[in-house]
Each structure stands twice: as structure tokens, then as C-alpha cells.
Structure prediction request, 260 residues.
Amino acid sequence: MRPSVSELLEFAISITEQAGLRTLAYYQTDLAVETKPDESPVTAADKDAEAFLRQAIESRFPDHRILGEEFPEKESSSPYKWIIDPIDGTKSFIAGVPFYSNLLGLEVEGEVVAGIANFPALKEMVYAGKGLGAWWNRKPARVGSVSDLRKARVMITDFRHFEKREAWPKFKPVLDSCLFSRTWGDAYGHALVATGRAEIALDPGMNPWDCAPFGIILKEAGGFFTDWDGNDTIYGPNAVSANPELKDQVLACLWNDRSR
Ligand code: IPD
Ligand code: CA
Ligand code: CA
Prediction:
């Protein structure tokens, strides 16, 4: 018999919590930093946490597929696919800044049904299961009700990411229209939107492991997580999260088309 979403979610919460504790053991210590071919940094903590999650998944569900940032994809014919970002915000982690996370998503037949974003140094976990609601430390998580872009708090990770991807002309109208923006975003930006502490999070460059938990988390929290074309996907090249009132406004602004 197939496990229920609720069983899978509880399992995912438990292993992500344990992975988070493992990363805390390395946090604010003198860590060696390697540079990957894409020039992003990686540490022993990233690899340790992903190896732990893979091993935990494989021992409970030996046939499930696994896609993770730091090791090769495990493929099979299983309808279940776990997607791991062992540390999102590695740059924060290396700097000893607590806004990093451990991300885990579970797809069943191509649809994400469970997602966890764990922020161990902040003692915060935001998670959701399909039809089971979104939760912030086991209390309901809800997007906020701001409906005017001029009052929106916008979270990003690094201004240079927009320049690098030639996305600055798209982002500038959002920046000009919002209340203010803050950086150090990474996954925490999307978690802030899902918990009503910010209205919009924007990232011009994403991989599936950066996004995996957020489609389901934002949906269950009453909001949206899409690519910049408004597609409900974790496989887009970029991402935006927002509450329903602001979704069309931010997409229109990104495309400089205020009539949308
Ligand atoms: C990064 C974060 C960041 C995004 C980058 C990613 P990492 O992930 O998700 O928000 O802008 O493109 O590489 O490397 O810290 O896991
Ligand atoms: Ca990431
Ligand atoms: Ca990562």
C-alpha cells in the first residue's frame, strides 16, 4: 500500500530536522570552502547533510528517485522523487549568518506533494503537505493580505544576480514600485512570504532543488510560487512568490506591462 501524504510529510520533517542538526555542528566553525565548476561555494556540511538525507531516504524507500544538488541523480521507474538542497544559502552559512536552510521536496508522479524548508540556526521550520495546510513551527502559515505593490516588502538574494542574468530591467520596475527590498533572501525570502512577514520574493536564477518545497508551501499558505511567466513549476529558470492580490501586479511589473 502507498504511504499517505501525511506519513511521507512526517518522515520528511524528521529527516530534514536531523539534517539541520548535522549542519549546525559545522555552523560558525572554521570550514574549508571549495568552489564548484559553476563558481558557487560548497562545504563539507552541504555534502554531509545531503549524504545523510539520501541514506535516510534510501533505507526507508529503496526504489525512490533522488535529485540533489551535490551528488548525481538517482534514477528509477518509481513515481516518487525526492529533491534535496542540503544547504540553501551556502554563502550565508559560510559567513556564519543564520538565514540558511535545508530544503526537501517530494514529487509523486510529477507533482510536489510535500515540502520542507528548515532554518536550523533560526529554529524555524516552514512546511506543507498537499491538502494538509502549510505550517510554521507547527502553527498555521498564511501569506499576508497586502494588496498594493507600494506596500509590498520584496525579498531578493543579491542585486548582482539580476545584472548577471540581464534581469535588471525586469526587476527595476518592481524595486521602484515596492515599499522596500531586503537581501540575504535565498529560501528565507520565500519562507517570509509564506508566513506573512514579506509580500514578494524574487529570484532570477533557480534550480529545481532551490524551488522544490515552495510551490506546495505557498499554495497551502494561500499564495503563489511560479516562474516569471506565471507557470506553476519548480523547473523554471527563475521564481517569484507572492500573495494572490500581488501576483498579477508583480508579474506585470516584471514584464513592464502594467495592463496585464
Ligand atoms: C542559491 C540560492 C539563491 C539563488 C542561487 C542559488 P545555494 O543556492 O538558492 O537564492 O539565487 O541561484 O544557487 O547555492 O546557496 O544552494
Ligand atoms: Ca540552493
Ligand atoms: Ca545548496
